[in-house]
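Task: sequence in, structure out. Protein: Vesicle-associated membrane protein-associated protein A.
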Amino acid sequence: FPGPFTDVVTTNLKLRNPSDRKVCFKVKTTAPRRYCVRPNSGIIDPGSSVVVSVMLQPFDYDPNEKSKHKFMVQTTYAPPNISDMEAVWKEAKPDELMDSKLRCVFEMPNENDKLNDIDASKPAPVLNTSKQDGPMPKPHSVSLNDTETRKLVEECKRLQAEIMKLTDENRHLRDEGLRLRKVAHSDKSGSPTALALRDNGSNSLPSLLVVIAAIFIGFFLGKFIL
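Result:
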């Protein structure tokens, strides 16, 4: 009987009469309150068969508990004139009866089967057809060997030296600009030479900032590319 056992579970039992005489059968169980058997008795003609439905009633399944339920199919040759089935079984001799015993097995579905059932019930995902088929590209490795590490350290030192040099030049240009502005303020005549020098000192600062920004951008781009 396959689980889960929250509802009635039905298993069919097929009985066949291979003899050339009619056979009476009766189905018995050790747990009559747990099962419904239809039909539980009857007659099978020679060379014919009958299907018996065994219905297990719902119950709380305990996987640690071993099943002790058993069935027995009892058969005997039918007398020529059958008027009372109960009398046939009462009057039958032990050597005229044949017993076939069956043991009940309870099986719960596997976890993989449950997952497959759940996946089958879900709608299939819609794939993006614009993507090309093929293996996914491998991510770039972030590890560096010794040679690349040394190159990166040397490049950092060189850039630091250039930054210090540019910082000194920027300080010098800033002092020069302050001096030129003082000269421009002190020059009351407003000569063209003073104005030109003041403009030159003012324009040099933005250019220097652009150079420093370009160096920083190149440093970070070179670090990530390496």
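Residues 126-133, 137-143 have pLDDT under 50 and may be disordered.
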